Amino acid sequence: MTRQPPAPVQPFEDEFVTGLRAIFEDRILFNRVLGLKIAELRPDGVIGRIAMRQELVGHFSFNRLHGGVISAGLDAMGGLAVMAAIGARHMDEPPAQRLHRFGKLGTIDLRIDYLRPAIGEHFELRAEVLRLGSRVASTRMEFLGADGRLLSTGAGAYIIS
């Protein structure tokens, strides 16, 4: 069977990117506490960054990023990937209207696999939507070290209201 090439992805408007960045980085307080920043926002996937800070280190972890921070970061990035996919699905609407669609998005299932200790000065988080249904979205996430080494993986399901 021959595989079809993926359809070209239409980039987001600056207004949409700015609005989604404000929601994700500024209005979601927990993301602000984590220092989670959007590095790349595309309809087919998102990339974020988080810098190592002493308050994010586990109590007895010897400068390893706490597993709860990894889990929360991957969960947030999975949600962001869903927001981007919803935004891409409704490109016929103005950016401001699409940004109002994210008010009721919640995690219904999350699995994190910790593969290696998260030691480093900063980390990259990636997420993509595997399936976007009318009520539920499924995602896959990765947590990488500054050298690109895979440290943790995640899979999540999100309810869309």
UniProtKB/TrEMBL annotation:
Protein origin, superkingdom: Bacteria
Known EC number: 3.1.2.20
Every Thioesterase domain range: 63-150
Record Gene3D superfamilies: Hotdog Thioesterase
NCBIfam families noted in UniProt: PRK11688.1, unchar_dom_1
Keyword terms of this UniProt record: Hydrolase
Catalytic reaction(s) noted: a fatty acyl-CoA + H2O = a fatty acid + CoA + H(+); a medium-chain fatty acyl-CoA + H2O = a medium-chain fatty acid + CoA + H(+); a long-chain fatty acyl-CoA + H2O = a long-chain fatty acid + CoA + H(+)
Any one Gene Ontology molecular-function term assigned to this protein's record: fatty acyl-CoA hydrolase activity
Record's protein name: Medium/long-chain acyl-CoA thioesterase YigI
Pfam families: 4HBT
Family assignment from sequence similarity: Belongs to the YigI thioesterase family.
Enzyme class: hydrolase
